[in-house]
């Protein structure tokens, strides 16, 4: 339930939803089974109940720094994020993911790196350019192919696996922001028990 402590006043007299409270609400939504794209075993979800991390993200909001990803990786992630969910960059999805990865176990860090590298390699193979440099239509085509069902195609299946991993990181990061929660129906004066399914990620898988 939203409380006066969780809802912070902003200069225009409205209210904002801190990442900590947005994360709690999204975690409850996932636990209730109302997010079709959420997988309970995905590493993203274990962080949403970590108030210290959520508060650290809020505190570091003005001067954001990349903690784990290289500049090239961050650029690629930001491009993919916006391609999968328009508005993800405004919601600072890539920055949030980078923070979580900085405290993630080595195994999951490598899995994330492998997933991102798979898209980078596919972009260079198809278009001769790094992922951040391809045209919007090229990115859309790449994502559409990545979430398509593959039949006895090892490379296609590998890209789909990478897509599913990254999609959950990106979707979780976006919908655990105020912007994402507002899209799901949150308002400062309304507490809801159920959330509609997310719309953007259905277009890519």
Could you walk me through the main structural features you see in this protein, from its secondary elements to its overall organization?
The protein is mostly helical and 205 residues long. It has one domain. 52% of the residues lie in helices and 2% in strands. The protein has a two-stranded antiparallel sheet with strand order 1-2. The longest helix has 22 residues, at 106-127.
Largest sheet, order of strands side by side? Answer: 1-2
Count of DSSP strands: 2
What is the overall pLDDT average? 83
Roughly what percent helix?
A: 40-55%
Query: Which spans have pLDDT < 50 for at least 5 consecutive residues?
Result: 1-14, 192-203
The biggest sheet amounts to:
2 strands, antiparallel
Distance linking N and C termini? 32 Å
Oligomeric state, counting identical vs distinct chains: single chain
Q: Structurally, how many domains make up the residues?
A: 1
Rg, nearest Å: 17 Å
Structural class call reads mainly alpha
Q: Name the shape in a single word.
A: globular
Order of helices and strands: EEHHHHHHHH
Enumerate how many helices there are, as a single number: 8
What fraction of the residues are assigned to beta strands by DSSP? under 5%
